[in-house]
Design goal:
By secondary structure, this protein is of the alpha/beta class. It folds into two domains: 230 residues, no CATH class; 146 residues, no CATH class. Helix content is 47%, strand content 8%. It has a five-stranded mixed sheet with strand order 1-5-4-3-2, with helices on both faces. The longest helix has 21 residues.
């Protein structure tokens, strides 16, 4: 199998877009966990509620396994509950469980036809649609730490890109897909910064993915669906991303047209330990800005350490990063303001930052990091140079001392 590094980097870079399209998979796991195990409900209702957010995977123009499963469960609830229980019995071999489930379902379909269920009697085209894809969805919802959502077209497309062999037997192809997923997951786990981000994202959304199986399956799906384009295949993945920055003086801040802003695409960075300990957007933006500063100095041929002052010396300095100007000697004081939104979103600054910007007016900068893509560590950058007093900011908070009023209250 080919090296997956470039594909993984492309997935990380496009995480925000891909995730916006595929987030229902994580929502479906949460919904299943909250609904399927309601023992006070009949099996057909547990199935209906449990798979409600993943029904798009279980219905198409030519296949509708969920609808058939619910219909059969309404007519034969005891049999379906027994069949699902056997399918979900992890002590038995997977192939055996899949084959038994499919054959048992076909047998029940035949019985229901003979009994005259609905308009099935006499028809030769009644199908169960309980194929390897449908079964993989059931298993992945029930045991997300052990199974993967499987689609043959996705597997075939990814296998073609990754130079991975497949076979003709339906169940064997599914088992091969599982093996492929395990291999892919090993490579994904090497992206420590991204996995750290992903863990924070799961926690923030209150989603689950106990063994990263859903992430792995999503990556394979993304490669086959979103990244498997002619443009991507022809792209020079080694080509460096052009870096451009727009800078204004603080005094001209309110006259700037946002349409004039140029963008800087930051490189993907390894945040290592600090990224694992701190998940907030502000810190991530500061780390991104440090990387930008290092590249700026390197481009100028300046060998100088860029210091994360707010971490090394503590908050309250009035700036986050200490760098140097283009002469390589004069200090450059940088305060970072980060947003995932657009550049027009307002930002807040403290009295310490205001005071420092006035004292160091000629060498004080706001790095307005906007459109920040946390997974890909990419953003646009607007640099505002000068004292913050020139921005005409509005006071938003006040500090009241209670020391003169507390005596004698108790």
């Amino acid at each position: 199998m080919i090296q997956l590094t470039s594909l993984i980097q492309a997935y990380i870079k496009n995480w925000d877009f891909i995730n916006s399209e595929e987030i229902y998979k994580w929502e479906s796991l949460k919904q299943f966990k909250e609904s399927f195990f309601k023992t006070d409900l009949p099996i057909q209702e547990r199935i209906r509620q449990g798979f409600s957010k993943v029904d798009n995977l279980l219905v198409s123009a030519r296949s509708y396994p969920l609808a058939v499963l619910i219909e059969v469960a309404e007519a034969k609830p005891i049999q379906i509950e027994t069949m699902l229980s056997n399918l979900f019995d992890e002590s038995k071999p997977l192939r055996e469980r899949m084959e038994t489930y499919m054959s048992e379902f076909d047998r029940i379909i035949k019985i229901m036809k003979d009994e005259g269920h609905s308009d099935w009697k006499g028809r030769n085209n009644v199908k169960s649609f309980q194929d390897t894809h449908a079964i993989s969805v059931y298993l992945a919802m029930r045991y997300p730490q052990a199974h993967y959502i499987y689609q043959w077209k996705v597997f075939a497309s990814f296998a073609s890109i990754a130079d991975y062999e497949t076979c003709s037997d339906a169940i064997e192809r599914y088992l091969m897909f599982v093996q492929l997923c395990e291999t892919v997951k090993t490579e994904l786990m090497k992206e420590e910064a991204f996995i750290s981000f992903y863990n924070g994202w799961l926690k923030e959304k209150k989603f689950i993915d106990p063994n990263y199986n859903l992430l792995t399956q999503d990556f394979i799906y993304a490669v086959a669906t979103y990244l498997n384009s002619e443009e991507y295949q022809k792209a020079d993945k080694k080509k460096s991303i052009e870096k451009e920055v727009y800078q204004i003086e603080a005094s001209a801040f309110k006259e700037v047209d946002p349409k004039d802003f140029k963008s800087f695409k930051g490189k993907i960075m390894d945040y290592e330990a600090i990224d694992k300990l701190h998940r907030n957007l502000g810190l991530e933006g500061e780390m991104w800005a440090i990387q930008y500063e290092r590249e700026r100095l390197e481009k100028l041929g300046i060998n100088h350490d860029v210091r994360h002052a707010s971490i090394e010396e503590g908050d309250g300095l009035g700036y986050d990063i200490l760098s140097v100007e283009d002469d390589g000697v004069t200090p450059r004081y940088i305060e970072v303001k980060t947003t995932e939104g657009g550049v027009t979103q307002p930002f807040f600054y403290s009295s310490n930052e205001l005071a420092r910007s006035i004292v160091e007016r000629d060498h004080y900068y706001i790095y307005r990091v906007y459109g920040f893509k946390r997974a890909a560590r990419q953003a646009n950058l607007l640099i505002i140079h000068g004292g913050l007093d020139e921005l005409n900011g509005e006071p938003m908070t006040y500090k009241a001392s209670m020391k003169h009023f507390c005596v004698g209250w108790f």
